[in-house]
């Protein structure tokens, strides 16, 4: 991929982010145990971003220091007050999954 000009890197990392061309298949039985948690994680992230770029209740309540958000290099001041179509801000989300020594799958991040 890199030789074709396709890259996915992290600004702080010296090596490209590893990306598998072939997706990993998760058995239906494993996915049925993970799906609700993954969906909940994305809903929580959506709610967080909606608040940060909307009412900012989380900042007013002091749950997070305002400076922590506003000083983040990924914070987009221009996005404040924008109500995205269908309320969706996160169109792609990466969730790390791990298998333990018994072969059980769990959500890592």
Automatic annotation (TrEMBL):
It comes from the Bacteria. Pfam families: CP_ATPgrasp_1. Residues 23-104 form the Circularly permuted ATPgrasp domain. InterPro entries: ATP-dep_Glu-Cys_Ligase-2, CP_ATPgrasp. PANTHER family: BLR5612 PROTEIN, SLL1039 PROTEIN. This is Circularly permuted ATPgrasp domain-containing protein. It comes from Amycolatopsis regifaucium. The lineage of its organism: Bacteria, Bacillati, Actinomycetota, Actinomycetes, Pseudonocardiales.
């Amino acid at each position: 991929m890199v030789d074709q000009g396709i890259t996915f890197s992290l600004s702080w990392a010296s090596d490209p982010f590893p990306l598998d061309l072939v997706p990993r298949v998760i058995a239906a039985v494993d996915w049925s145990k993970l799906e609700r948690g993954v969906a909940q994680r994305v809903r929580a992230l959506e709610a967080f971003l909606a608040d940060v770029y909307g009412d900012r209740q989380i900042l007013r309540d002091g749950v997070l220091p305002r400076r922590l958000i506003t000083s983040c290099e990924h914070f987009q001041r221009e996005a404040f007050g924008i109500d995205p179509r269908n309320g969706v801000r996160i169109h792609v989300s990466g969730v790390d999954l791990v298998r333990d020594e018994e072969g059980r799958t769990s959500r890592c991040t």
